[in-house]
Amino acid sequence: DAGVTQSPTHLIKTRGQQVTLRCSPKSGHDTVSWYQQALGQGPQFIFQYYEEEERQRGNFPDRFSGHQFPNYSSELNVNALLLGDSALYLCASSLKVIEQYFGPGTRLTVT
Amino acid sequence: GIQVEQSPPDLILQEGANSTLRCNFSDSVNNLQWFHQNPWGQLINLFYIPSGTKQNGRLSATTVATERYSLLYISSSQTTDSGVYFCAGGSQGNLIFGKGTKLSVKP
């Protein structure tokens, strides 16, 4: 049974560019959540998708957007990248909002 | 919003020792999880425990929902237990994380 997968593993972008991160949920899960983890901090909730709609959103600007596809996979898009967007981006999947399982993350570096 | 406080922030143990990590919530949560983050950043599920007590090998956890806290017990610690332990909870499907407890187990 495959767990949560994320791609790419690492990414280096320049300020002002746009980036797309991808996530495939654990088999049988229908809900995907995205988190940002800065160095030395706990993960912070960005948003959650269920039935292809954004259901919950954390305190992140509109530069952060997402999408969920009919197969439950999801994308996180960040526009107009800032140096402060450098972080580990974690995707989690769950069945409805019960126990969340995390992927290995995408480490984004903005230079 | 909900605030999550974890203690202690850092913990150094000798192999074989026992420890207790604590997590306090500022408001009620209806989902609560404990995670171990390995050096590569992977969050490993330890417990889903919105209330009650669970045990898995050398690890156990207790959540007292009415008093808004949860405890993680590690017995007979091993060097492989080293890493950062997070608790996280929420009331609307999202998870609010604490700042973590960094555990170092010395051989």
Give the helices and strands, then pairings.
The complex is a heterodimer of chains A (111) and B (107).
Chain A: E1 5-7, E2 10-13, E3 19-24, E4 31-37, E5 44-50, E6 53-57, E7 64-68, E8 74-78, E9 87-94, E10 101-102, E11 106-110
Parallel strand pairs in A: 2-11
Antiparallel strand pairs in A: 1-3, 3-8, 4-5, 4-9, 5-6, 7-8, 9-10, 9-11
Chain B: E1 4-7, E2 10-14, E3 19-25, E4 31-37, E5 43-48, E6 52-56, E7 59-64, E8 69-74, E9 83-90, E10 96-97, E11 101-106
Parallel strand pairs in B: 2-11
Antiparallel strand pairs in B: 1-3, 3-8, 4-5, 4-9, 6-7, 7-8, 9-10, 9-11
Can you walk through the features of this model?
The complex is a heterodimer of chains A (111) and B (107). With 111 residues, chain A is an all-beta fold. Chain A is built from no helices and 11 strands. In chain A, the strands form 2 sheets. In chain A, strands 2, 4, 5, 6, 9, 10 and 11 form a 7-stranded mixed β-sheet that branches. A 4-stranded antiparallel β-sheet of chain A has the order 1-3-8-7, with no helix packed on it. In chain A, a hairpin with a 6-residue loop joins strand 4 (31-37) and strand 5 (44-50). The termini of chain A are far apart. Chain B is mainly β. Chain B contains no helices and 11 strands. The relative contact order of chain B is 0.34. The mean pLDDT of chain B is 96. Chains A and B meet through strand 4, strand 5, strand 9 and strand 10 of A and strand 4, strand 5, strand 9 and strand 10 of B.
